[in-house]
């Protein structure tokens, strides 16, 4: 794992970084390629990330392969996505497992999961997420809620509201000890795979790991 540049720029994190870090890059929609390519190139240049797994739709696989050949990115593996968010993430994690398709990658200590639809990312936040994941088993970026959350009855009437100050919006990136998130996905139900969206919740319910929440910057919005 390369740390020479990191020691110069971020010395306070050096002793806390895990020995291997993988980045699972969820590239759902190739129409945001202009944005996601900037993020992808940024991630490739982070010296302490050892491996990048890019999860793409089947129809975009050849396009991404052409990009890898063009830029000669050797620490990147392309994985075909699934029919839902959680199935796609699991496919990315399987790149390090005997159950995966193709050559198996070296299993990392920490895996970072991020969406291509959030193209504005800072290395300082990545470091905080990675270090917190190593220390606590799971971590994730959050932001304050900007609107009040209401619950409706089945008839379409107001049921109750949540106290906004007590809650946060879950954002990406999220970090995990690899074995924690991999085991969480192994225990997922069909309902988890079909309707679930929150990885931190899987780690809590299936592995008993309570994630450390990191306040993120206002730039963690989605391209829609």
Textual characterization of the structure:
By secondary structure, the protein is α/β, with parallel strands linked by helices. The chain has one domain: Spore Coat Polysaccharide Biosynthesis Protein SpsA, Chain A (Alpha-Beta Complex), CATH 3.90.550. Helices cover 34% and strands 23% of the residues. The chain has helices spanning 4-9, 33-44, 61-71, 85-93, 123-136, 178-186, 190-195, 199-207; strands at 21-27, 51-56, 76-80, 110-115, 138-144, 150-152, 158-161, 168-177, 212-215. Strands 3-2-1-4-8-5-9 form a seven-stranded mixed β-sheet, with helices on both faces. Strand 6 and strand 7 form a beta hairpin. Helix 6 (178-186) crosses helix 8 (199-207). The two termini are 35 Å apart. Mean pLDDT is 84; it is low at 1-13 and 28-32.
Q: How many independent structural domains?
A: 1
How many whole angstroms does the radius of gyration measure?
Answer: 18 Å
Structural class estimated from helices and strands:
alpha/beta
Give me the side-by-side strand order of the main sheet: 3-2-1-4-8-5-9
At CATH level 2, the architecture is Alpha-Beta Complex
**At the first level of CATH, what is the class?**
Alpha Beta
Strand content: 15-25%
* Total of DSSP H or I helical runs spanning 4+ residues: 8
The third-level CATH topology is: Spore Coat Polysaccharide Biosynthesis Protein SpsA, Chain A
- Spatial shape: globular
CATH superfamily grouping: Spore Coat Polysaccharide Biosynthesis Protein SpsA, Chain A
Helix share, percent = 25-40%
> What letter string, H or E per element, gives the SSE order?
HEHEHEHEHEEEEHHHE
Amino- and carboxy-terminal Cα gap: 35 Å
**Largest beta-sheet characterization:** 7 strands, mixed
The tally of beta strands, per DSSP, is 9
> Whole-number average pLDDT?
84
Spans of at least 5 consecutive residues whose pLDDT stays below 50 are: 1-13, 28-32
